[in-house]
Amino acid sequence: MLYGIISDIHGNLEAGIAVKEFLQKKEVEKILILGDIIGYGANPEECINLFDTQEVVFIKGNHEEAIITGNHDIFTTDARISIEWTDKHFSKSYREKISGWKEVLEIDDFVLCHGGLIDPLYFYTNTRTKAKKIFEQFKFKYCFVGHTHFPMAYSLCTSEEIPSIIAQQPDGSLQIVLEEHKRYIINTGSVGQPRDGNPCACCGIFDTQKQIFQLFRVNYPVDKTAKKILDAGLPSSLASRIVRGI
After folding, report:
1. In total, how many domains does the chain have?
2. Closest CA to 10 of 79, 88, 72
3. Residue 219 is part of a domain; what is its CATH number?
4. Whole-angstrom distance, CA of residue 194 vs CA of residue 176
5. 74, pLDDT greater than 90
6. At residue 179, what are phi and psi to the nearest 5 degrees?
């Protein structure tokens, strides 16, 4: 099976279109989206429409949860402003749709969530110590997450106590040959707002037959998305972040 695994589109329609076209060219059979398809960007409903097909499975992220619950106070100022903007531009039918998305999904020998299995919506899997807690508390072969907007992976051999870090290549990509005697937590980065200094959209593909995960970087018209953010009256810092990839 060839899965496209992506996360954190964040209302960035141009990045979403570029990634969807890339995955179609690679002939993936199913697309798995690890939450936060909305927030920050100016096209929340359009991004959902873009991927709303039978071949796509959505997982709930913390931005979807904020729209459902109305709890915006836990977010940073810019994030809260963007959520409030999204709230005003989000119709009832879309609220009902995101309310049905699961927080955790298991498929064969791998599991999916937005943040980390300790707290599927809000946990940041961004250190060895945090990865170690997940490995210790949950049984899985592979776990795919997003939320940090930073592509990275952790592996743990059966004989090891501390996970190893698998860092991205200089061009922002990843290629991991998944070994039988190891377990993995893989962060697929962000489609719509990468924060690793590379503005190109992150796009993951998991080949279950070859047991290989690859993370690609996909160009898209960043300036067009930035202008949409500014024209919508959203914080200018959000436009600056996507241009710089931070």
Report:
1. 1
2. 79
3. 3.60.21.10
4. 20
5. no
6. -90, 145
pTM for the structure as a whole: 0.96
Per the CB < 8 A criterion, the answer to whether 10 and 17 are in contact is no
Strand partners of residue 3: 30, 206
Phi, psi of 186 (to 5 degrees): -120, 120
Classify residue 26 by its DSSP letter. T
C-beta of residue 120 within 8 angstroms of C-beta of residue 103: yes
Helix (H, G, I), strand (E, B) or coil at 172: coil
Q: Which amino acid is at 123?
A: F
What is the structure's pLDDT at 73?
85
- Give the pairing type, strands 142-145 and 182-187: parallel
Tokens of 190: 């962000």
What average pLDDT does range 158-176 have in this prediction? 91
| Cα→Cα distances 163→112, 127, 132, 135, 156, Å | 19, 9, 6, 9, 5
* Domain housing 34: 2-244
